[in-house]
Amino acid sequence: MKIVFFDAHAFEQEAFDSANNSVHELVFLKPNLNAQTADLARDADVISIFVNDSASADVLEKLASLGVHRIALRSAGFNHVDLKRAQELGFRVANVPAYSPYAVAEHAIALMLALNRKLIRANNRIRDLNFSLDGLVGFDMHGKTAGVIGTGKIGAIVANILHGFGCKLLCYDVQENAELVKSTGASYVSLDELCRTSDIITLHTPLLPATKYIINEERIRQMKRGVMLINTSRGGLVNTRDAIEGLKNGTIGYFGIDVYEQEQGIFFHDYSDTVLQDEVIARLMTFPNVLITGHQAFLTHTALYNIAETTLYNVSCWAECKETEHELAAKKEHP
Ligand code: NAI
User: Fold this and answer.
1) Is-catalytic flag, 221?
2) Is the pTM of this model over 0.85?
3) In terms of DSSP bridges, do strands 2-5 and 25-28 run parallel, antiparallel, or are they unpaired?
4) How far apart are CA 199 and CA 229, in angstroms?
């Protein structure tokens, strides 16, 4: 099958070429998928998209008019696809439900440690031959209370690592993870209680209408002064303007993010020769206690290889007129 990849990056092509073994025709394109670029999918049997592409209703209609009815996501998250419209138009859409929850969980922990022990600042200082320790005081993670919001695959791994550090664990999820409670002694509590009593709060729920701005002004007001807030899940879980206020008044003592609600069009691009237009992220970057990475939590060799394997597996199932178990839309062959 001819697969046209939108938002294709050099870092993923090697894994795809290797996993493909010349079975499918792979066409890697740099542009993001949107209403203006959908035409590039002409002649494709399948398109493959990433987290900052948009498969909104108008884009799906455009693709359908070109005769393209299959979308292989290179992500677990599918909040960028209008699944209802996809279903109506007879699309097949499949995702990569798990490629390495460890990669994301370990990145969340990396953000915590780097923020706590001020590693970026220390490294910059040392490179300037400044060996002073003033301003680099951190805290012991051992004995602190960590609140994990969302205890699915990634959240549970984060909770287990924090348990290893000797943290007391509070969890919030619509579905309790009995195994996690057994292995770590974690307690499930209300979101209010988690916010009120945690020293560290880390977010691991999908972005859904119910979780949009789950961290907002009201919740931040409940938090302990100096709380550490980590978001490696989806930018829309946190109201960024409210987080900025929390940082300004000292409620949020540390803010580590791998995702940003307006990241589309910013993350994954090199703007080092231009002027940054986004005032909100620009303000975030001025805080010494904010650490931002550009949606790289998934970025390990293991994860990239697993993404390539599962994406191509989904396409191979379709090539053989079979359903894949990772199907999110139409359970029937499209016209
Ligand atoms: P998962 O599906 O295993 O776990 C999600 C958990 O959230 C489940 O336990 C579910 O019950 C819970 N949840 C759903 N709605 C909720 C609500 N309203 N309130 C509280 N909890 C709720 O997903 P997984 O694999 O752990 O991934 C979590 C998220 O991580 C993904 O949805 C994605 O947004 C993000 N992610 C980020 C990546 C990155 O590179 N930064 C890479 C991969 C995933």
Assistant:
1) no
2) yes
3) parallel
4) 9
To the query of whether residue 241 is one of the catalytic residues in this protein, the response is: no
Pairing of strands 70-73, 290-292: unpaired
Q: In what order do the strands lie in the sheet with 25-28?
A: 25-28, 2-5, 46-49, 70-73, 92-94
SS3 content of the chain, % helix, strand, coil (to 5): 35, 15, 45
Cα 303 to ligand 1 centre (Å): 16
Q: Which two tokens stand for residue 218?
A: 């009201």
Phi, psi torsion values for 179, nearest 5 degrees:
-60, -40
pLDDT in tens, 42-58: 999 999 999 889 999 99
For a ligand 1 pocket test, name from 95, 160, 173 the mutation site with the most ligand atoms within 8 angstroms of its C-beta.
173
pLDDT in tens, 117-176: 999 999 999 999 999 999 999 999 999 999 999 999 999 999 999 999 999 999 999 999
Q: Does 101 sit in the ligand 1 pocket, CB within 6 Å? A: yes
Q: The dihedral of CA 99, 232, 282, 33: what is its sign?
A: positive
Burial string for 231-264 (b: 16+ CB within 10 Å, else e) reads bbbbbbbbbbebbbebbeeebbbbbbbbbbbebb
Q: Which fold has domain 101-292?
A: Rossmann fold (3.40.50)
The CATH number of domain 2-99+300-319, selected from 3.30.450.40, 3.40.50.970, 3.40.50.720, 3.40.50.300: 3.40.50.720
* Per-block mean pLDDT, blocks of 10 residues, the chain (335 long): 96 96 96 96 97 95 98 93 96 95 98 98 98 98 98 97 98 98 98 98 96 98 98 97 98 98 90 95 97 97 97 97 89 41
Centre of ligand 1 from the C-alpha of residue 298, in Å: 13
Q: Residue ranges of the domains in the chain?
A: 2-99+300-319, 101-292
Catalytic residue flag (residue 263): yes
